[in-house]
Specification:
- By secondary structure, this protein is mainly β.
- It has one domain.
- Helices cover 13% and strands 45% of the residues.
- Strands 4-1-8-7 form a four-stranded mixed beta sheet, with no helix packed on it.
- The longest helix has 17 residues.
- It is elongated and about 80 Å long.
Length: 128
C-alpha cells in the first residue's frame, strides 16, 4: 500500500511539472559594425515618458531591451517583435539618421540560447 502511494505521488508530480507553462526571456541588442565611426543610439520604450540615448563606439554592442514572458508553451521561446516593446529605435551618425528601420523584424537576426530569445541588429557605415 505504501509503495502504491509513493508511485502515485511520483506520477502526479511528474504530470504536474510537465504541464507547467514555461517562462522565456527575450533580449534585443544593437551593434555598431563600423570600423571608424561612433553612432548615437536613441530608443523609447512603450509607456515610458523619456527616451534613452547612448553612444555606440565601433565594434560595441548595447543591450536595449530585456523582457520576460510567462505562460508560454514549453517549446519556446517564440518570435517576439521589438515593436511589441519599443516605440522607436533610431541610430544617428554625424547628424544623419540611418536608413535601416530597426522596428522591422527583417532587420533583426533571431537565435535561441536555452530559454532566451536573442535578437541582434547591426548598423554599418553603408546604412547612412
Amino acid at each position: 500500500m505504501k509503495n502504491i502511494l509513493s508511485i502515485t505521488f511520483v506520477i502526479f508530480t511528474i504530470l504536474f511539472l510537465s504541464s507547467c507553462d514555461a517562462v522565456y526571456t527575450y533580449e534585443y541588442r544593437v551593434k555598431n559594425i563600423s570600423d571608424t565611426s561612433a553612432m548615437q543610439l536613441h530608443y523609447h520604450f512603450k509607456g515610458d515618458s523619456v527616451a534613452t540615448a547612448t553612444t555606440l563606439i565601433p565594434g560595441e554592442e548595447k543591450l536595449i531591451c530585456v523582457t520576460s514572458h510567462g505562460v508560454e508553451a514549453p517549446k519556446g521561446p517564440y518570435n517576439q517583435p521589438i515593436a511589441n516593446y519599443v516605440d522607436s529605435v533610431i541610430v544617428i551618425k554625424n547628424g544623419v539618421r540611418t536608413t535601416k528601420n530597426l522596428l522591422l523584424d527583417d532587420n533583426w537576426i533571431y537565435s535561441v540560447s536555452h530559454s532566451t530569445g536573442l535578437y541582434n541588429a547591426t548598423i554599418s557605415d553603408s546604412e547612412f
